[in-house]
Amino acid sequence: MEKVAQMYEGKAKKVYSTENEDYCIISYKDDATAFNGEKKGTISGKGVVNNKMSNYIMELMEKEGIPTHFVEELNDREAVVRRVKIIPLEVIIRNIAAGSFSKRFGVPEGTQLLRPTLEFCYKDDALGDPMANEYHIVACGWATQEDLDTITEYTFKINDFLKDFFKKINVDLVDFKIEFGKTRDGKIILADEISPDTCRLWDSTTHEKLDKDRFRRDLGNVEGAYQEMMNRIFGDR
Ligand code: TMP
């Protein structure tokens, strides 16, 4: 499949149309932003890591019965995906307190939560992606209650799958953000990416951060963290 025209350029990816209107090609960039685009930078090699990691994880998820947009890896930075209309929600699961959860509730980073929590944010850069509950979402028409029920069921399944997946490579899944889309025939599927940009990943032994927080918080060795995740996932394959 080949790119026809660029449809959209986001902060970390470009999306192209193809000759088949049910498929797109996404191209992962090395560009990184944080704090709603206020902080900008480049993480050399990030696009390759995010493309390969996301594709591999989604392929495994499909085998677990979770429908995803992933179709085929084209090259180091590009993949064919099913075309969807993105549901304008950031769906976040937290297993361990960190980031905005710790700030909002005064719960120290690293506190094990008594059960995984689910959060929704309305995707709107101008508004700073405000948190929204199910009533807000249904009231504003961003998704129906039925959509939310499906998204919730898939998201907890994805959390169970990902926690196990990362545990095997000695990484704790602290939290993550995913997005869903709807295909032309109305099916909800996992879209966007699963990568160190969208997950908090801590080494289980040393608690070293192996994700984008190294960039957000100027912790250094940002590229090294992405490569470390790549090595742990693909090192023995
Ligand atoms: P938070 O603690 O800043 O709310 O982030 C929760 C999770 O969501 C964390 O794994 C990072 C991820 N995330 C994104 O993928 N995109 C974003 O724009 C933000 C703010 C967080």
Briefly note the structural class of the backbone.
Answer: alpha+beta
**Unreliable stretches covering 5 or more consecutive residues:** none
Q: Give the topology string: H per helix, E per strand.
A: EEEEEHEEEEHEEHHEEEHH
Q: Give the distance, in angstroms, between the N- and C-terminal Cα atoms.
A: 26 Å
Helical fraction: 25-40%
Q: Report the C-alpha radius of gyration, rounded.
A: 17 Å
The tally of beta strands, per DSSP, is: 14
Mean pLDDT: 97
| Secondary structure tally, helices | 6
The hetero molecules present are:
thymidine-5'-phosphate
Shape by Cα distribution: globular
Beta-strand content estimate: 25-35%
Largest sheet: 7 strands, antiparallel
Quick gist of this model?
The chain is an alpha+beta fold.
Can you describe what's shown?
It is a single chain. It is built from six helices and 14 strands. It has 237 residues and is an alpha+beta fold. It has helices at residues 46-63, 99-105, 134-140, 145-167, 213-216, 222-234, and strands at residues 3-9, 13-18, 23-28, 31-34, 39-42, 70-73, 78-82, 85-86, 89-96, 112-122, 131-132, 171-182, 188-191, 199-203. The mean pLDDT is 97. The structure holds thymidine-5'-phosphate (TMP). Thymidine-5'-phosphate is lined by residues 92, 98-101, 175-177, 198-200.
